[in-house]
Amino acid sequence: MTLLALLAALVASFCGAQETCPDSSDCLGAQPTSVVDIMAAATGRSSSVIKQLPLSFPFATQSPFLFAVWHRDAYPAGRADLSVNAPLHNHRLGMDFANPEGWSMYHGETVPGFPQHPHRGFETVTVCRVGMVDHSDSLGCAGRFGNGDTQWMTAGRGVCHSEMFPMLHEEEGNPLDLFQIWLNLPAKSKMVDPHFSMMWGENAVTLEPASDSGEGQVVVGTVAGQMPGQNLTPDQPPPDSWASDPSNHVWIWTVRLTPGAAWTVPTSEAGINRSLFFFVGNGPVVVDGKHIVTDHANLHLDPTIPTSLVNKGDNDAELLLLQGRPIDEPVAKQGPFVLNTDSELRQAFADYRAGKFGKWPWPRDDPVHPKDKPRFALYQDGREELAPTTE
Questions:
Q1: pTM of the prediction?
Q2: Cis upstream peptide for 388 (omega within 30°)
């Protein structure tokens, strides 16, 4: 697949047609047509739940987020060249999202993943919970990360990168579980220099608050945003990120409740958009003692009211919490570009075609790193960092 064909595929697969919105809070993420509103009075609300939506793919987010996508793939064993050791005739190579055998190739043709493609005007936060990701970009940065690591990239004025999923194990499967979350940038920061950073899982802040019910276990992973009342702080976001300003109250948290466990989400400031995505578990999850959520759902919450969660199901319940101060600016988005006006979108495509996103320094559009390479980050200044060890 040529670069231009891949770009066209990305346009179709990520966001569909060009979209321009007067207010980012009204249009970020496609809203499902089947919507169950649980609207309460503006004053005297007894529950934190403002609205309940069915869970969509990608997850439909509120500003300052653009969307969140969850990839869960049960990849089979790999070959020596890190490709999939399985027939691919059921897969639509180059545009494979159907998950025919419990896994997808996405835009990859031998190794699953996303070969070289551009971004401008926002950030990607990739939280790899299981499996490995090989990153390469036009800045000369590279990395292998996974099993609890997070890679945070500010695209800014423009960068090309690839995200491939190497099949490192030849004698067993190569499961993958990750989130990629797109976080918008305000107009003043859309053309900043790109920035690449790695947040190693060994340094991640994972908390186990006591269960309110006295039963089960609560585990909260804080990728961004310090939990109130806790002294532990996650790694700092990139310097130009909307999340780098504490007054924007950007939280990216994963929550796991074992059966019977209960926990109360702490409050935040008024004016913050808060979404809670229930994406794993057979339910029900009881919210605020009255809302019984039996299916996977997207909850819009009032951040000024504590949200109580109780897992009444037979399996673990997993939730993703995204919150932040909305960016009150127009949003123009098409495929891998998110800007403020249509003319800026046209300029982004022109700049990409003119090679202004940097020269691709890698021998392939879908590079993977050597099989025996441990988790690492190679930065633009040539500095290489290995993941810390727990030994």
A1: 0.90
A2: no
